[in-house]
DNA sequence: GTAGGGTTAG
């Protein structure tokens, strides 16, 4: 509107000035120019123009529309208006009227309606950067090169930045190479471009060249270099950059120091990270977040939470980044109570449930066994991204809700969220766990349609899908025809399926391939030795177990834990160290009699076949989940839901026993093992005995 | 004009 009015004003003007005051007055009288804001009205009023004016539309703030000073200048009858004030911000990237390709603002410049200065180009480029508009940015770049400002380094740097932020590093690099005069910002812009686009080597390689030219890096340069160093293969570059930081006197810059903390944390150098952190003269939220994120990544939930409370005691407000790490920490320590509390605390202090942090809350609830709460969070999310969907699908898959996972996945496709490779892993896992073979095969093929390249994990999941369903030969054929070399994980999936379906011959074949390719995992060794034991090939049992001993592999001792209130009660197999040992044993005897009456038959095939005395004794062990269950039954009121967590997978016999317990004792019991959740209720399990 | 911290799977 404003632009149109100015056109009118300009064409009506007979004077040599760009805009004439008289013409402007005419435009206002004809209602072509809409004016709002007190200050403008005052100007108009002084000139007796207030009544015919429509009061609306033009924003009063100086960065939108006509700035106050420009307007005043205009009324002082200046020779020319400031170009960047004449076009409103919302019109920066408006399309041309006469061509689909062009930009309106560029037309105006070409027509001479507005006279650009370099700030206009900068503003237009900034807009493209913020909105990720590469095509428009390129047009402005080309236009700029034809202008009289074409060698202005300031704007050229803005263009490099626009290209890197819009993801076109090639354009940025090309410009960089073509620039005859580069300053420190030029180098820094390109370094940050590489570092933000996960190309750390290229970012780091620029640094020595820059130094050689005698350019001095600043805090921006160091921030980017340290980010790049954090994803390098070793900590050597990071240490070198640190030395430069000290030399150049940037150690106490809060950006640089926070980046240093983060860089060291990424290489597990917690001591160094802590030293930098403690030595910071001024900290901000980011400094804390870097340290909290480190502990959250490491699964050190308690440390992360301690820092979370400490940062607030020291007067720092948690941000979305903080919450994301803290909820991850709660998820890894199963601190659901604490997590719920922090969730409430966040909402109370005005935190919104945006995807950024909502995803981690959803994940936390799902991991803590409450798929209902996870679902609620998903439904309440103010914004959803692909990670929200993936997290929901993962939760559903792990809780045995295969059908619902498939439905959600279809819904996601329907509303047009592009699935990524993790999405496909989630939905394939859901199908595999739920026995939805046809759906799984269909989704595997669907990856092509969405241009998702199958990764080795997808192949593993497909072998798992076929294998679990008993289609062992199909699984083997698939492995033979795969375009990639089978890995130990591929053979491991087949081995697991062979154990499940008691196919010794193929199991031995898969097991031997599996341990050939990776001898660091005890799981396949144990399964393989059990298969040999089951058919009496004791020399092979001895061979596999000897190899395990030689490379120092031990079966991870199985343990289970239950939370009663805020306390964790941990049990290992055959545990008699618990203070309530007597009562627990008695309870289990009582329970076990009850469930036997209900039809439970102990299944000894899950006891490992061992040969020596020590191991023979172990056969008599009472599995830890049974002890944990007995303890929970003793210590919780009738009817309450029991959650048991395990560090290894639940064994078949315990699985069957717990099903009976859920019926006989009328309890809902959830067991989380390393792979998934089992919801036992009324005598059956959500996994439908298919895991 | 240039900077640092987060989530899903395995």
TrEMBL record:
- Domain of life of the source: Eukaryota
Q: What is its main location?
A: mitochondrion
A cellular component annotation (GO) from this entry: mitochondrion
Gene3D superfamilies for this protein: Tetratricopeptide repeat domain
User: Which stretches make up the DYW domain?
Assistant: 599-691
Q: Where are the PPR repeats?
A: 152-182, 183-217, 284-318, 385-419, 420-454
Does this UniProt record's set of keywords contain Mitochondrion?
Answer: yes
The answer to whether the entry has keyword ATP-binding is no
Q: Which InterPro entries match?
A: DYW_dom (IPR032867), E_motif (IPR046848), PPR_At4g14850-like_plant (IPR046960), PPR_rpt (IPR002885), TPR-like_helical_dom_sf (IPR011990)
Q: What is this protein called?
A: DYW domain-containing protein
**What organism does this protein naturally occur in?**
Papaver atlanticum
